[in-house]
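[Q] Does anyone have a clean structure-token version of this?
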Amino acid sequence: MVRRLRKTKKSQKFNYNKNRKRANQNSRGTGKIKCLEIRRALDPQKNLATNIKEMGLVYDVNKSIPVPNSKQERKKLAKYVNGFLEEDASDAEVDLESKFPKIHVTQQLEKDANEHGESRFRLPKGHVKFTTDMIDNYGFDYKAMSRDIRNYDQETWRQFRKRVRKFLSIPEQSVPYLERKGWLDCDMSDPSDPRWKEYCTDDEEC
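[A] Here you go.
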């Protein structure tokens, strides 16, 4: 049964505690820009599309890289072959500073993207202790490690080799152990060093 209009109006009450202007802005907004370089270069007097274009970035990928139209491409090629269309000068050098006044934003983003960040990966303490105990007992004989009675997970010698090499690739965890063993001058690629002799590699059978 449909409710009567008079009762519906009586049940509707205006919420005086709600800021309608702020709610409207939040519903239309796209959120805060997290990129610090872009946020600093934004001009509040211009819309977002113009700001992004001045930085040398793309606001709408569909407009920047449209779907190729084979019919238009054939027409353009025919005009070029028949001499009705001059050679495209898009490959000529363009002054980026004049075309994109805020090109420094794009350059800074490219620089940050090309920098290799330091890995923050760390092994658990129990993992490090088990690995160092195995090295103390068997050196780098991975086959002997796999036969140890504490190998509850039944890891193969290749898994132990991967475990040891991963441990040695993290300086924050491996350097104190190597200092205690006196192996800081060890070179893994030096086959003449007996302290670093690896057994059960891919080049030899175990």
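[Q] Thanks! Anything notable?
[A] Residues 125-196 form one domain.
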